[in-house]
Fold this sequence. Notes:
- By secondary structure, the protein is an alpha+beta fold.
- The protein has helices at residues 84-96, 150-158, 165-176, and strands at residues 6-15, 19-27, 33-41, 44-48, 56-63, 68-72, 74-77, 98-110, 119-130, 144-148.
- It contains three helices and ten strands.
- Strand 8 (98-110) and strand 9 form a beta hairpin.
- The protein is elongated.
- It starts with 5 loop residues before the first strand and ends with a helix.
- Residues 39-170 form the Nudix hydrolase domain.
Amino acid sequence: MEFEEKVIDVEHIFDGHIVDLDVETVLTPEGQKATREIAYHANAVGVVIVSEDNKMLLVRQWRAPLRQETLEIIAGKLEPGENEASAVVRELNEEARLQAQSVEKLTSFYVSPGFTNEKLTLYHASGLSPVSEKLPQDEGEILNLEWLDIKEVQVAIAKGEICDAKTIMAVMLWQSLQ
Length: 178
């Protein structure tokens, strides 16, 4: 069976700082018209950091769409023209004020392909040291760094403090390496 839909009309709804929105009218393989709402978002990187004493570095921050604090791995979207390696270096500096001797790609995945094209790539950073020159943080960004062991991470997941896919995937990768 063929699954590919044919786009017959696109209505551009919004150009934003984070997302652009389109509403597409498509023709399904069975010949039916359907509507698809699509959020175009820059690709992103996430950074898995585990200390020598086996604790994961997480960032506590406020997430407005959820109306709650979350604990997440260091992450951010790629800026226009930026490659993933540069984004990892920049995000490590902006969010944790760290630099890494080694950065290794772990995996890539689509965040939620039902409505967005955003692809996130997870990296592992090691050989960490403080940066000598701090980059500015994002406007309005308030971050608190926390090092948690595996049991503390599991409690944070159960409490809903760790609730995003990228961080849960990072935790699963960390646990698989134990």
